[in-house]
Design a protein that fits this description.
The protein contains 13 helices and 14 strands. The protein has helices spanning about 60-70, 80-95, 110-120, 135-145, 160-170, 185-190, 195-205, 220-230, 250-255, 270-275, 295-315, 320-325, 335-340, and strands at about 20, 35-40, 45, 50, 70-75, 100, 125, 155-160, 175, 210-215, 235, 260-265, 285-290, 330. Helix 4 (about 135-145) links the parallel strand 7 (about 125) and strand 8. The N and C termini lie far apart (about 55 Å).
Amino acid sequence: MSNSDNYSDNVLISFDDVLIKPKYSNIISRDMTDIYCNLSKNTLFAVPIISANMDTITEYEMALNMARMGGCGIVHRYMSIQRTENIVMSLLKEGVRPFMAVGSVHNDRERIEFLLNVSEDIAICIDIAHGHSSHMRDTLKFIRHEKKSECLVIAGNVATPEGVADLANWGADVVKVGVGGGSVCTTREKTGIGIPQLSAIQLCARDANVHIIADGGIRKPSDAVKAIAAGATCIMIGGMLAGTDWTPGWKESYEAHAPMEYRGMASAQARMSCNRASRYSEGVARRVLPKPPGSSESVLKEIVDGLRSAMSYVGAKNLEEFRQNVEFVRCSPSVVKENAPHFSDN
């Protein structure tokens, strides 16, 4: 027998379901806009973009260059403690604050303790597929109460306001929002679990007392713009950077004209590569051709240009004004076709 109380008639939406209504603007140039954002604890970014903590996206070179561009890269956790230490020390030597991913205290305690002992300036990202869980609670309790650390802690992923509130109460400074929307994630197809990403961002940001990072479903610059307009402090990208020149292994693949792998961290390929149990996967792997030199920077520039332009369309000088001024309009499915270039010379 079904339970009528477990169903909601509320229609939740994602990026392609809306457009942003243009408004009066006295901004005569995109250069007049300010896209600086404060993630938390005086963590100021000139660019509100973070590269994903995936083993085919962010290691030393991506983290270094993302910081130089004004954003940050979160280094993945699927490596030895020694390699983690090497990357941390190399970034610190370059004057770059390391943002490092860790697992739960139950399976990644050694890495967590190492990072907490190196420097309070290190930012930790607790990376748990279902972040609204006892594993997350225990890990935050370990960092905040047992270790008494005040380092910047990013935690995720969750997709509900309740999840954000609990993680904040347990000690997270920043929460990653998004379940199942990643470009190489199959969680929704396999489990039916998730919240459409734009609605997830709106709902989570509405009453949050912490900053949120929109993680998942961002395939093009306009998606990033809408995510920030909906309330995200920063956006996280993985697929848009796949095969670009700051990703691990790019140089060798580019010189050999060989394809690179881009994979979800819950895919069978990633699990086997990291010597993790692979009896169940919620991700896929894809082969991508290495993109030309400068391609990583080009991706960031496209997003930044799109964001600045959107701000000028709604008369917003900074991101706070942008979120206040934005009015979303719902669209029919056919509008997706209209949005894209559709000139025909037939």
